[in-house]
Amino acid sequence: MLFQHPRAFSLRRLLSSAVPAWRPLTVLPDSSPSSFRDLAFVPSTPALLPPRTFKALPAIQKWFQPHPTKADRYDVAPDCLQSYGSATVLLEYSSSTTQFVRSHAPLSLFLEWLNHSNSESKDRLYLGQTCLDDLPQALRSDLPTPAHVVSSGRGDIYAANLWMGRPPTYTPLHRDPNPNLFVQLAGSKTVRLMDPAAGQRIFARVQASLGEAASAKFRGEEMMHGRERQVLEEQVWGSGGETEGGFEAQLQAGDAIFIPNGWWHSIKGIGEGVTASVSFHTSTELNIC
User: Fold this and answer.
1) Rounded to an integer, what distance in angstroms lies between the CA atom of residue 116 and that of residue 201?
2) Which of 155, 232, 233, 234 is most buried by a 10 A CB count?
3) pLDDT in tens, 149-165
4) Tens of pLDDT along 41-58?
5) What is the mean pLDDT of residues 9-30?
6) CA angle at 89 for the pair 88 and 95, rounded to the nearest 5°
7) Residue 274: strand, helix, or coil
8) Which class for 57: exposed (0-12), middle (13-18), buried (19 or more C-beta within 10 A)?
9) How many helical (H) and strand (E) elements, i.e. helices and strands, does the chain have?
């Protein structure tokens, strides 16, 4: 039997721990649409826009209010969204028993839940992937398409979706078929990304451990509950998971991250209050006009 000197073991641990498990993303040098297009969109490179690039979005200013004493905490403003309580949104219900149900419901139901819930609530409601086109015009006007999106791709929107909930929130590891400019509207989120090859290796390993062979291209509710959700979380967020050379970014209100198509990502809402985001998916073809 071979024995390793304690000092050699300690040195190896020290050297390995000196390298960050998750690397920070590049921050673009400025917030201009041209820098976004040339340094992120065209080369298909994930990147952060400079902090608070989108702080002036009407939705940030009107829908939410900062907590008077707790930094980075936001709550829903008392008068704005309630006026549109009859609007239909897509809600995801989950419970401590791993039950998961997705259905359309009035916005007022979600707002009522926010008023009577906290971060310890076992039954959770999440406003997930609600299409902006399904919202009342007044609310859509508060989330105009960024110039960064208009000047990239063909300048069109493949899909634009709203996400809102009370932390902790969690979106399992997946990839999107179109580039995504993801803008934080309120609260805090942590995003972890992996390049297409690294993410595919983790996905295949998870599927093998479950005895499954699901397609990575078509992901549905199966990743949102049960054993697959748990194993994906362990692989990306657990202490025993493998980073595969991934990247990590922290988002606050007004911040934005560009996620190229095919890049795997998992997102967690953290902190207190309300966390909200909007994703703008555009085409991959270049706008050369």
Assistant:
1) 41
2) 232
3) 999 978 788 899 999 99
4) 999 999 999 999 999 999
5) 66
6) 130
7) coil
8) buried
9) 8, 15
- 273's torsion region: left (phi>0), alpha (psi -120 to 50) or beta? left
- d(C-alpha 178, C-alpha 41), whole Å: 11
Distances (CA, A) of 266 to 105, 160, 172, 279: 26, 18, 5, 14
C-alpha 79, offset from chain centre:
27
Q: Using alpha carbons only, give the angle 132, 156, 283 rounded to the nearest 5 degrees.
A: 105
Contact 185, 276 (CB under 8 A): yes
Q: How far is CA 74 from CA 65, 108, 118, 272, in A?
A: 5, 19, 13, 8
pTM over 0.90: no
Could you tell me whether strands 23-24 and 247-251 are parallel, antiparallel, or unpaired per DSSP bridges? parallel
Q: How many CB atoms lie within 10 A of CB 17?
A: 9
Give pLDDT tens digits for 193-220.
Answer: 999 999 999 888 888 888 876 666 545 5
Q: At what angle do helices 226-237 and 196-210 cross, to 10 degrees?
A: 140
Residues with Cβ < 8 Å from 173, sequence gap 6 or more?
A: 194, 199, 202, 203, 223, 232, 235, 236, 264, 265, 266
Residue found by looking up tokens 């219900």 in the block: 93
